[in-house]
Amino acid sequence: MFPDRVLSGMRPTGKLHLGHYHGVLKNWVRLQSEHECLFMVADWHALTTAYDDVSVIEKSVWDMVIDWIAAGVDPAQATIFIQSRVPEHAELHLLLSMVTPLSWLERVPTYKDQIEKMSHKDLGTYGFLGYPLLQSADILLYRGNLVPVGEDQVPHVEITREIARRFNHVFGKEVGFEEKAEAAIKKIGGKKGKLYEDLRTRYQRDGDVEALEAARALLAETQNLSHGDRERLFGYLEGGGKMILPESQPLLTAASRMPGLDGNKMSKSYGNTISLREDADSVAKKIKQMPTDPARVRRTDPGDPDKCPVWQLHQVYSDDATKAWVVEGCKSAGIGCIQCKQPVIDGVLAEQAPMFERAQPYLEDPTLVKKIVADGCERARELARETMRDVREAMGLAYS
Ligand code: TRP
Ligand code: SF4
């Protein structure tokens, strides 16, 4: 009933690294040619943990947008915008908070984890507890049903779905809903109206999901329905009220775990990253300093790739022939570790070359970035206004 729409975001907390690229950005780039996409700089989310040092946020905002473009996000295809420039995020967050049970927020796995991990910081704030709800508002404000994120963010997409359901359940009921829905079926009339009723019965009586899909497709192609009637009939299929906010789902990249320089997942907090636009010398130096299989003390000692973090990077950057060369050469001590690392260095540099190229014009003229973001915010506000009109109406706030 709502068109597919992709919404995702990142917090501006510093330079992006290759983990962001392989974990999330590659996915964004693929999606932008398949769906309408909105990519958001989550500056308010950054504040929830960086409130004691706000100085990094502003610089990171612009660096991050350049990193996105460097990675291949195309401002001509996707909308790039900043959360705090669309105040409707705050309004929706507040309105959703009216029906969000505290226990839902307290049991989000990232909540207690983060508080423990960042014990040097007081995260016993209202803002931090509300972090996932603000994220739900981000997604639902644009009726984003597809949310490409890293694995760690899946619980936040799940709570978003639960909140949308609850919202629809609580506020989607209107006086005389069933009568209005029945009247709308009559308006479709004829065979199609009958088919809708059959499919709805099959879904409700037998839980036949294919029937549900078929009924939705039927509504999507039915011309002579008003916006309100169409929404009612979508909601009536599942027995509830009007569907005001869609149910979102996470989209994960196939292999989203990018290994870092030490074999752990690449992450700023482990200090094992290569940044997206790191200069070539520094890339080479970091990879040359990577630890290898400790059994290879001397050049003549054989090793085992499975005990070596460099091997994990070969999985990302090397073709089959190179990988065979590594396994053979490592196990027989036929190659040295420095030799083995070279294809990885070359692979990273080759991946980064087009990124530097795409970033260049924006580094030379920062007003280009500001213009892109200003246009994106404009577009985002338009969509946000539409959703908020429906939300306010459903919550009985549409008086003037
Ligand atoms: N919480 C996300 C992160 O830490 C960032 C984010 C904020 C987000 N709002 C979002 C991601 C909406 C997806 C959708 O990376
Ligand atoms: Fe690791 Fe390659 Fe050295 Fe083997 S040869 S230990 S895989 S760096």
TrEMBL record:
This is Tryptophan--tRNA ligase. Belongs to the class-I aminoacyl-tRNA synthetase family. CDD domains: TrpRS_core. InterPro entries: aa-tRNA-synth_I_CS, aa-tRNA-synth_Ic, Rossmann-like_a/b/a_fold, Trp-tRNA-ligase, Trp-tRNA_synthetase. GO terms for molecular function: ligase activity. Pfam families: tRNA-synt_1b. Its EC number is 6.1.1.2. SUPFAM superfamilies: Nucleotidylyl transferase. It comes from Jeongeupia chitinilytica. It is an enzyme of class 6 (ligase). Keywords: Aminoacyl-tRNA synthetase, ATP-binding, Ligase, Nucleotide-binding, Protein biosynthesis. The gene is trpS.
